[in-house]
């Protein structure tokens, strides 16, 4: 298994949540969020390896919202390899796993999904944006269910960007739902409650 700093918490159900933090976060950040969304799932939470002035991220960016897309692709491969290896080490079913990412973590999750690197069951992406502007392959995402959570006043992951990402997933056959909160880039309780209810009610429950 390659060297991502991470945490694994055993759960009591078949599902595993793959938690991916935002810029400046770490592997501990989203553990309470994961538990609030699913009290029974196992949890794998990784720390991004790229440092931006000391702040961990999952890939390099050239400016706010301007991504180093070559790095996005390389890092997506590296993280997907780690997750698949972790599934073997910790004996969880990758096909029943759900990625849960916030901001930069949502963006690397989207990259792994769009590049067809992981065979997951679904994803919950908070404040995401399209991670790649070109060269996105046309992999089928037909058995995927994806919830995208946007903030109406988010200046970073704007509603237009979240809708553009939703379209990329839909074009590939994923079952996509977009929910918008009347807030900005930060997560709200309504996001968390919405994600919990979606997970419990959706086809992947
Ligand atoms: C962030 O702050 O993490 C960004 O807005 C999203 C990203 O850089 O991936």
Q: What does it look like?
A:
Helix content is 32%, strand content 24%. A hairpin with a 2-residue loop joins strand 6 (61-63) and strand 7 (66-67). It has helices at residues 31-37, 69-89, 104-114, 159-171, 189-201, and strands at 6-9, 16-20, 42-46, 50-52, 55-57, 61-63, 66-67, 97-102, 122-126, 145-151, 175-181. The protein has one domain: 3-Layer(aba) Sandwich (Rossmann fold), CATH 3.40.50. It has 205 residues and is an alpha/beta fold. The mean pLDDT is 96. The protein contains five helices and eleven strands; from the N terminus they run ββαβββββαβαββαβα. A seven-stranded mixed β-sheet has the order 1-3-2-8-9-10-11, sandwiched between helices. Strands 4-5 form a two-stranded antiparallel sheet. It binds D-malate (MLT).
What number of domains? 1
Low-confidence stretches: none
| SS element count, helices | 5
Ligand inventory: D-malate
The average pLDDT score comes to: 96
Task: Give the helices and strands as they follow along the chain.
Answer: EEHEEEEEHEHEEHEH
What gap, in angstroms, lies between the N and C termini?
A: 29 Å
How would the global form be characterised? globular
Helix content: 25-40%
The count of β-strands is 11
CATH level 4 superfamily: Alpha/Beta hydrolase fold, catalytic domain
Physical arrangement of strands within the biggest beta sheet:
1-3-2-8-9-10-11
CATH architecture: 3-Layer(aba) Sandwich
CATH hierarchy class name: Alpha Beta
Structural class: alpha/beta
How many strands, what sense, and barrel or not for the largest sheet? 7 strands, mixed
Report the radius of gyration as a whole number of Å. 15 Å
Percent strand equals 15-25%
Under CATH, the topology can be stated as: Rossmann fold
